[in-house]
Amino acid sequence: MRIGLIGTGRIGSFHAAVLARHREAGSLLLADADPARAARLADRLGATAAPSVEQVFTWGVDAVVIASATEAHADLVVRAVRGGLPVFCEKPLAPDLNRTLAALREVAAAGGLLQVGFMRRFDAGYATARGLVRSGALGRLHTVRTTTADPAPPAAAYLATSGGLYRDCLVHDFDMVRWVTGREVVEVYAAGSDAGPALFRESGDIDTAAAVLTLDDGTLVTATGTRCNGAGYDVRMELAGELDQVSVGLDDRTPIASTEPHGPPAASKPWTGFLERFAPAYEAELAAFVHLVRGEGPNACDGREALAAFRIAEACELSRRERRRVRLEELPDLPAL
Q: Where do the coiled-coil regions begin and end (predicted)?
């Protein structure tokens, strides 16, 4: 199998290294808007560098992995499926909801095979929590709490095209709320703060966010996030039911300290970022894509699943801007099949 990978920045380089050592992935063709960057990575991995992105679609590949800048995702996905190529795309499919819907209509029209990069579906902790919820071990869920906290703000240039904290960051939490609980979000109320570094105000973004989500069975969810968690990278999910409660992401590297006299000590080596924390999940995600292309496994996160999480993020952003509750039914969606 020959895989074309577009985008050799931070996440693209990570994906390329994973695929290069995957025994079933075969050869790699790397492309980037900066051909020199793709060439340097190809040299390190023993892969082939294309002089431009165009060659990924003309030099004969069996599948495409898209890890380029967000603005390019939708066009590349559409081009891949129109060419009959299975495609893995990092989230989001597009910077906004309308372009996401347009891309997914093209995927459906072409009968394309699309997997979207929501890697937490492959994390052992979240998978265990999902099993406990679905088995009834926790009893009726009444409260779910999620948090995603980055240790430091990203570059200003990244913020300008990220889509905002809800769409770029907390969308992973929203995906986990659906995937773990098996329920749908019906209403959100969200707020945000830009009281931190000036680059957030300058880009029209927020550095800290909070949202209350109501699920279709009445379960309440609180989702919080920040770009300014100096203690380290912190991603957790707590699920409380009438019989028991569990926590995902609570281990000896969680960057939180107890103030209790006999509480656990602070982490001596807190997580530094998402690539370190979720490295095994990223590897499993790409392995699942390889198996999907080979016809040996299911699609772990198709376009509709990705859209559901993005619609929640979009509803939260609308709620924050308009300072009101937002029902998910207010937002456009794809018609049910």
A: none
Q: Is the pTM of this model over 0.90?
A: yes
Answer CATH for 122-277+307-330 from 3.30.450.40, 3.40.50.1970, 3.30.360.10, 1.20.1070.10: 3.30.360.10
Domain boundaries, the chain: 2-120+283-300, 122-277+307-330
Q: 238 and 252 in contact (C-beta within 8 Å)? A: no
Q: Which residues pair with 64 in a beta bridge?
A: 4, 87
- H-helix or E-strand containing 147? strand 141-149
What is the radius of gyration, based on Cα positions, of the chain? Answer: 20
- Superfamily assignment of 2-120+283-300 in CATH? NAD(P)-binding Rossmann-like Domain (3.40.50.720)
pLDDT tens digits, one per residue of 191-212: 999 999 999 999 999 999 999 9
Q: Is 206 left (phi over 0), alpha (psi -120 to 50) or beta?
A: beta
Identify residue 237 by its one-letter amino acid code.
Answer: M
